[in-house]
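Project standup — Tuesday

K.O.: blocked on the structure for the chain from last sprint. Re-posting the sequence here as requested.
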Amino acid sequence: MSIVEMICHAANQSLDGAQSLPFSAYTDPTLLLAEQADIFAKEWVFVCMEGEIPNPGNYFAMNLAGEPIIVMRGDDGDLLALSNICRHRGTVLLDEGFGSIDKYIICSYHAWSYEKSGALRAVPFTKQIPVVSSEHHLLEFKLSSWNGLVFVNLDAKSEPFTQRIQGIDQYLEFFQPETFDHVSAGEPESWQANWKLVIENAIESYHLFKVHETTLEKYSPTRNAYYIAGCSEWTLTGGKSERSKGFLERLFGRSYGEGYDHYILISIPPSFVGILSYGSLGWLSAHPIDTHSTQIRTGVIGLDDNALDSESHEFAAAFLREDQNICERVQKGMQSKLARGGKLVDMERVVVDFHRFVGSRLGGTPPSTFFQDEAGSQWWETNN
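H.V.: unblocked you, prediction finished:
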C-alpha cells in the first residue's frame, strides 16, 4: 500500500479499533507535498489575531502552503487576504511577519504600487504600452474572522468558515470569547517534529500526568479530562481544575464566577488548537516547514491584561517547552524502519477524529460523524 492508503486505512477505524498512524506518515517527504496541496491549500487555516493588526495599513505576511500571502487591514477597517506577489514579474512584495505601510504597497523591483485593497495604483515609465489596472489586481483569498481569530482559505471553491465549524459556538457561549479583545503573541519557533505530531500532542490530555507533571497536571489533572463533542471537522474536549477558586484568582489576577474551574480545548484542523477558559483563549498554530520541522506560533486573546501578565506567560512557556521536548523525542522514534505503533485508548478519541480529518482530505476516507459524550457534556449543559 502507498503511504496515503496506509493512513486512510488507519484513519477509517472506529475508536475501538483505532491505532497509531504508520511511522512513515511523519517522515515521508512525498506525503508532505500531498498535505500541502490537499490540506493546507484547501482548508481554513488560522493565521493571526485581529488585534495583532488593528489599524489601517497593518499587515501580517506569511507563506501558506507555498503561497506568499498578506493579511492586510484596509483603509475602511476591514481585513483582506491578498497575494504577496507582484502582478508584474512575480517579486515578493512584503517581508514575512508583521509590519505596517503608510499609503501603498510598493514593489522593490520596478516600483509598481498597489492600494491596501490590492488594486494596482501606478506603473512607472509606461509609454506606448498601457497597463490595465483592473487586470493587475493582487489576487484575493477567502478570509473569515471568528472571535478575533483570523482564518484564510486559498481555495475559492471552499465552503464558508461558518459552515466548516457549524455547531461549535453553542458549546463556547458560557465563556463569551467574542468579548475578548486584549492580545499577546510570542515569536515564531521551529520545533523539530512533524506538524501532525505537534497537533496530536496539543489536542489530547492523556499525556498531562507524565509530560506536565509539575505544570499542567498540578492544576488540571489527567483524570479530570473529558471529551465534550466533535467530529473530524472540529473537536472539543475539556478539563476541571482541582485548585480552589481563591488560588486561581490569585494566580491569574481576576475574579471568577461559576464555572471558573473548567476549560475547553478546541481543535480546528489542520493547524489551530485553543484553550478557552474564564477570561482568556490561549492558542497554538502549527505550519509545516518540512517533514521533520514545524513552525509554531502561540498567543492569547483575553478579557483584560491579566490574561497577558508575566506569570501567565512564564507558566505557558514552561509547559510549551515540555511539549516541544516530547514532540521532538517522538519524532526521533518515527525514524524506525522496524517498530510500529499500537492501540489508541479512550482518552485519544480526539486523535482519532484528527486522523479521520487527515484521511478524508488525502484519500477520501469518510469524515467522522458528530459525537457528543453524555458524561463530558454534562458541565456544558448545566452552564448553558
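K.O.: great, moving the ticket to review. The longest strand covers residues 280-290. The chain has two domains: 3-38+165-382, 46-146.
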